Amino acid sequence: MKDPESNYRGRLAPSPTGLLHLGHARTFWTAQERARAAGGTLLLRNDDLDTARCRPEFVTAMQEDMRWFGLDWQEPMVTQSERIPLYRDALARLHAAGLIFPCSRSRRDVLAAASAPHDGEENDEPLYPPEFRPAAGAPLPPLTDPIAVNWRFRVPDGEVLAFTDGRFGPQQTVAGRDFGDFLVWRKDDAPSYQLACVVDDAAMGITEVVRGADLIKSTFRQLLLFRALALPAPTFYHCPLVTDDQGARLAKRHDALALRTLREHGRTPETLRAAW
């Protein structure tokens, strides 16, 4: 039950690029349980900025599957593709502060650079070589409309960043060593996950982000953006990842463990949760 005195605001933020699986369900259930324990509010955000893979039928399916599993949210769903002006305004603020720079280098260029070993984490950005940066303080070209070049955030090299995770405890990294300059806007004129997530979490008043442990490194990037944009940062709780029988992290290609498939095979939310 919601406590009218509670200021806790959590969120569920699925991306409609496929069917939700058991890993999503466990993380979302944890988010709901933490919101309920705090007597707070749980929101739903549709992270649909990947226009190449997001499909309307997956938006419908994710809401149906979440309701079936017992998940509930208290306000109308927020859709990222409807919020582009907010992200563009944040980009303009970063540009005015000289904290970003245009980048014409491809991912292949970055991976090929001797100083840019990949850290081996699936879906994570390779370490951006400092020699690819423009000189500090060099005049920036204006932001165009539409944007047709990548823009990156210049990280403060050597700065130690830290936060305390609600599940895994103290976390620490070094900017420029453990991760490099990262994308905030893509050349296909779309905001990056990092920028959109920060802008939305602040605008929605999110006080705690509950998500998978694969996004711990993203938290450091996002904390830099919260600071650069003078926005209040939430706390974070990262959940252990669910794996398949071979120990591989679940992905949306694991159709056998999709909530919709499990439901069709007669599984119930109660029996699925009892196995955790």
Overview of the molecule:
- There is one protein chain.
- This protein has about 280 residues and is of the alpha/beta class.
- It contains 8 helices and 11 strands.
Order of helices and strands: EHEHEHEHEEEEEHEHEHH
The description of the largest β-sheet is: 4 strands, antiparallel
Supply the number of helical segments: 8
Overall shape? globular
Number of E-state strands:
11
Strand order of the largest sheet: 4-5-8-9
Mean pLDDT: 92
User: In terms of structural class, how would the helical and strand content be classed?
Assistant: alpha/beta
Spans of 5+ residues with little confidence (pLDDT < 50)?
Answer: none
Please state the CA-atom Rg, rounded to the nearest Å: 19 Å
Strand content: 15-25%
Separation, N- and C-terminal Cα atoms: 24 Å
- Share in helix: 25-40%
Quick overview:
This protein is α/β, with parallel strands linked by helices.
Essential attributes:
single chain, 276 residues, alpha/beta, 4-stranded antiparallel β-sheet, 8 helices, 11 strands, globular
